Amino acid sequence: MSPLTPAPLWLRLAAAVYDLFPLIALWMLTAGLFLLAVHGNIDVAHPPLAYHLALRGALLGVTAAYFVISWSRGGQTIGMRAWRLRVVAADGGALPWPRSFLRFAVALISLLTLGLGFLWCLVDRERRGWHDLAATSSVERLPSA
């Protein structure tokens, strides 16, 4: 079996855009469940602070669950499957869920720094971002079928 090649940044971004579609569906479902829980008796334009914070926390939790579960069970999100990418641990095996969670947390920090952690892929020899370095993982490009 030939070694896999590190995925370029443009492919990672393409997979991330693709992942927005299932995430939007999950976010809509989560927001719908929140509205159902309060029987729709909420001014969504000016929600109470507790409702607003709880909804934001739930949306972040759903997003984290999507990525952590995908990366630790098969190494691929839906977007990564479409673009033939896979997250692997440094030893080439599956990434355990605690390291998947760390990867998600550092990726979130990378977003908050205007994408600097993702742009790091352009200077790292093995095309790893901050989240890959923190979780000792990499994103590999799978061979064509």
List keywords for this structure.
single chain; 145 residues; mainly alpha; three-stranded antiparallel sheet; 3 strands
Secondary structure layout:
Blueprint: E1 5-6, H1 9-37, H2 49-72, H3 78-82, E2 85-89, H4 97-112, H5 116-119, H6 130-135, E3 137-141
Helix pairs in contact: 1-2, 2-4
Summarize it.
It contains 6 helices and 3 strands. It has 145 residues and is mainly alpha-helical.
Could you walk me through the main structural features you see in this protein, from its secondary elements to its overall organization?
The model has no long low-confidence stretch (mean pLDDT 95). Helix content is 58%, strand content 8%. The protein starts with a strand and ends with a strand. It has helices at 9-37, 49-72, 78-82, 97-112, 116-119, 130-135, and strands at residues 5-6, 85-89, 137-141. It has a three-stranded antiparallel beta sheet with strand order 1-3-2. Helix 1 packs across helix 2 and helix 2 (49-72) packs across helix 4 (97-112). It is mostly helical. It contains six helices and three strands. It is elongated and about 55 Å long.
